[in-house]
Amino acid sequence: MPLSARSYFVQQLLRWNRLANKRHMPWKGEKDVYKIWLSEIILQQTRVEQGLSYYEKFINDFPDVHALANASDTRVMKLWEGLGYYSRCRNLLQTARMVQDIYEGHFPKSYETLLKLPGVGPYTAAAISSFAANAPYAVVDGNVIRVLARFFGINRPAGDAVGKKVFDQLAQDILPNGRSAVYNQAIMDFGATVCKPAAPSCGTCMLRSRCYALNQHAVSSLPVKRIRPEKKDRYLHFIYIQYKGKVCIVQRRQKDIWQGLYQLPAIETSSKNFPAHFRPILTSQPKLWDDTDYTQVLTHQKIHARFYRISVIKKPEIQDGLWINEKELNEFPMPKVLVHFLKNIHK
Ligand code: SF4
Question: Is residue 294 a contact partner of residue 343, using CB atoms and an 8 Å limit?
Fold first, then answer.
């Protein structure tokens, strides 16, 4: 009797993994839950190529959960600098401290307990529990969705509630018994290296004879894309205030982008026009540093930044202002746009 499409898919995928999967990543096959968790948090919304060096730096500086839990927020945020989505970094610290205090330093492996940790949703809990303990939970990320949509011909976006349910259910239904660790890794690797978003390797693909997308000429239209809302433009004007060889920085505390990071004091405007005045930060007008428009693109926002400078003889009252030596600026974790600016001016 011919194999069902689902059995064929799983069998061929595992065969591909055994014979042809050459993807190397330092956390692959890792059984230390702390290291698996670290890699998963770093890889949330980050490409493997970008996350690799961060994973290595973190493992090097914080080889176990105690080292991370006992580190200062500023040190950890500094190490995270450039990776973006800083809520992940705050969650990282909170989780490490929870594991140390509540779980006596033993990282949980069970899906349900993992879900109680900050920053751990169903995907991350499935990945950690399956990789660490072979728990029967399917991972569903962008790679998995693409492979399933193309092979099985699923014509709906995964971004809405119904679509998400369809993909979650299918992924869970086909998960082979007792092989979740190897299978989950295999399907993600397959999506990243064979069934890629652009120019998938259909000509040599082990699934080609029964692949819906290939046989129906639908490879480029699957998976169905979700229409993304337009990004919101935000205009930030940062001021480099010098007072007796020191410069003022403030920590972003409000629930907004870059929470917990440091920056120069700033004014936000609703359009790209210069602010008419810089009150309540300053009573006199600073000068534009130069004509450079710095931008940083985030998931839902595009940040436009301009930089100004002023040297003052009377120390201005700046709420939560921290006056530091200019040389110390690079010791504080800052948003990418500020790091870029500081690099430019110190060239
Ligand atoms: S044949 Fe092409 S589209 Fe189908 S699973 Fe293989 S790589 Fe993906």
Answer: no
Quote the percentage of the chain above a pLDDT of 90.
81
Say if CB 325 and CB 254 are below 8 A apart.
no
**pLDDT for 17-38, tens place per residue?**
999 999 999 999 999 999 999 9
Task: Check if CATH label 3.40.190.10 holds for domain 232-345.
Answer: no
The residues that bridge with 148 in the sheet, in sequence order, are none
Distances (CA, A) of 330 to 82, 166, 262, 297, 327: 13, 47, 10, 22, 7
Contacts of 20 (CB under 8 A, 6+ apart): 206
CATH 1.10.340.30 domain locations along the chain: 5-221
Residues of each domain in the chain carrying CATH 3.90.79.10: 232-345
Q: Can you give the pLDDT at residue 1? A: 63
The angle subtended at Cα 261 by Cα 260 and Cα 263, nearest 5°, is: 135
List, in sequence order, the alpha helices (H) in 62-110.
Answer: 65-69, 73-80, 86-101
In the reported structure, the alpha carbon of residue 204 is separated from the centroid of ligand 1 by a whole-number distance in angstroms of 9
Residue 274: DSSP 8-state: P
Greater confidence (147 vs 291) lies with 147
The strand pair at 232-243 and 301-311 is best described as: parallel
Fold of 5-221: Endonuclease III; domain 1 (1.10.340)
149 C-alpha to ligand 1 centroid (Å): 10
What atom of ligand 1 comes closest to residue 150's alpha carbon?
3
Q: Is 207 in the pocket of ligand 1 (CB under 6 A)?
A: yes
| Torsion angle of C-alpha atoms 18, 22, 28, 29, degrees rounded to 10 | 30
**Quick one: tokens of 278?**
């810089």
